[in-house]
Amino acid sequence: MEYPWWYVPHLTSPMLIAAIAVVHVLVSHYAVGGGLFLAVETRFAYQSNDTAYLDYLRRHARFFILLTVVWGAITGVGIWWTIGLASPTATEVLIRTFVFGWATEYVFFVLEILAAFAFYYYWGRLSEKVHVTIGWIYAAAAWISLVLITGITAFMLNPGGWPDHRSFWVGFLNPQFVPQTIARTGGALLLSSLYVYLHASLVIQDRRLYHLLVMRSARPALWGAVLITVGGIGWFVYLPESARAALESAAVLTVLVVIIFALTAVVFVLLYLGPYRNPGWMSPGFALALCLFGVAAFSTGEFVREAVRKPYVIYNVVLGNQIAPEHVQKLRRRGFLEANPWTKAVIAELPAGQGSPLLDGGRIDERALLERTEKDPDALRVVGQALFQYHCNDCHALERGYSAVGPMIRGRDLDMNFALVKHLEKAHFFMPPWAGTEDEALILARYLTEIAPPRPRGMDPIYLEKQ
Amino acid sequence: MEPIDAGTLPELPAPFWFIQLFKVLGFTLHMVPMHLWYAGMLVALWLYGRGPDPGRRFATRLLAQMPVLMAFGINLGIVPLLFLQVAYCRAFYPATILMAWFWLAIVVLLIPAYYGVYYHSAALASDGAAMTRLRRASGWTAAVLFVVIGFLFANGLSLTTRDEAWHALWAAHNVGGAATGTALNLSDATLWPRWLLMFGLALVTTAAWCVLDAVWLSAGSSDDDRRFARDFALKLSLAGAVWSTVAGAWYVFLAWPAEVFREMFSFPAVLLTLVTAASPWFPSALLFAWRQGDLNRSRAAAIAGTHLGVLALNAISRQIVQNIELRSLFQPGVSYQPVATQWDSLVLFLATFLGGVVVIAWILAQLAKVPAKQ
Predict the structure, then answer these.
(1) What is the ipTM of this complex?
(2) CB-based contact (8 Å) between A117 and chain B?
């Protein structure tokens, strides 16, 4: 309750996090699996004295560096940038809880970068043994960085006993940690094989070599799909109850989960029939289709993973609208607007009107505010909007856009809206509870009733029109 | 805005001195590669285009190193930003949220800049034959983007320490009390000199790198190359020192808030202030003293080491100034923030850090054994 809220029209700022997260994970998993691919295959190519394969691996390493060191690293920084902007309170908690987890992770990032550059730029100039060892250093560092960041993201979905203990290891080794690590390791194996197929199908001319590569990458890809499934089941089992309920009750999420399963099954079957049984089928078109299915499954999975946390950003620790659950009762008594310097500033900026002053020694006179907004439509608009921005905008656009509230309450009257705002968490259990006074709830309800579009005309039954 | 009640913050995970130490250390290390793309890229592109042969060779090497320098520099930059957020989240987040789109633009602009550097450097190996107009343009575009990114950083970090400006910016850039993220800290007297000061220091860093490169990093550099490095570095570092002094004087005498000025000019802080102000001249002094003789390895190491000390001095002074500027925001003061040292994860970090240093040393030792390309 200390930060200004960042208003992103139509989209809502947390959706920016989701967008950047998706483009990031599509590369970051490859940064892990691709490193393993390069280490294992380079060793194999040295052992079998396959210079054509070595040449290809060198080309692949360049592609790998261009994608992971640049795109992967910068979008990773991008996620960090946007969580600070769009979810500052939760980021504050994460940063202060896991600072040394992150610092440890950066040590591995530095190792990764050094190993990746050494592996590629010194190709052919190091002894085979040292070259392969550096490849393995890369792969190990990359996988450990996956484990470290997974501990932190898994924490957000189910921090386990952390709220009681507040200790690093309790938070890090949370119930979601092992399942998500398994799933992400599988994701790294699967996704990197799909990228390898796509890249190889476009650049390798030599049939023998292509055939060899297709066969060798089939097994890790299939294992990846198995690990994703195992980890996915664990993820479901260790979901907090509300998250599981959200999966069942929200139609969108149910559909998305079905889509993920269907896509994963398709990828598995295609992998089995294609690369595993009939490597000859692997045309660039086939490789592209596989890759697209995989990417689609991945992006959907990431979206669902983000969505089921509602109403929390960090489960039981910080609500979506940057409020700590233990503060809700106090806010209900003392007022929502007063608790944040930025919403308080909105009230302070209101032009002086008649009646008693709204701010008195740092406290907001709620009664006066209610009266003022009742008489003055401009004041209602300003105060209502502030309540909406700071209490609802993390999940809803206002009139148009992502999950916009206006269209959802079309034609509802004030009583209904007032009841909804007062009992948000009952209207939908994945909304946070109302964290303000009754007066504030009434102001917001009036404002929403003002801006809601009327009930669509043509569909009104005759008997209603007559009233 | 209102002072922050330290009681509502989560506890600091380590003593404040520890957080500052790593912040300063990380920032010092970050500045080396960052300066090389900030000012060094422009210098190198210019030398590549119209410099003498040895200058062209130096420029070619620096531009070829650029992708690697960027990778490490960006990573090292994360360290001070991480510890800044740990210590001063309540100042850093509001400031960056007010300018959210511009702050996010840093990341967005970095991607074309980075790929631009790669695209440009890919043509260097061919001895200029493959340097098409498009590749040259992508190099210059990247260089300009770095300067723009530097400006955005100067904006965000100066706004972080200027809580008295937040309200006005918010008032002009909000919808229903929520920040639109379109504000910039342009009215801040410290913004311009801060931005320029960094560029001056970056010129000196480029000079120090030039010397280091000639005798340590490039195998088979000729006498010509070394003579060029010696002379060019002297000129460049003098230019950087003059630039830093002018921008620094502007910053200190015309822009510093009264409180900062008073404290930084009272004993003993004044000693640090004076040494920091004089420090950009140290590398020039060495280069001037050695302007005649051969540029050997120990001289180059002394120059580069001295300059690293200059950067560290700057980082330390900046930290102290930041602490003074932010003191007004925190009540009853940062040092009273509740601290619950997370020994378990801190030990994990320190152990990894040491282990990481060992592995890095091993890799570097392997690379050092490799015979040079020529």
Answers:
(1) 0.94
(2) yes
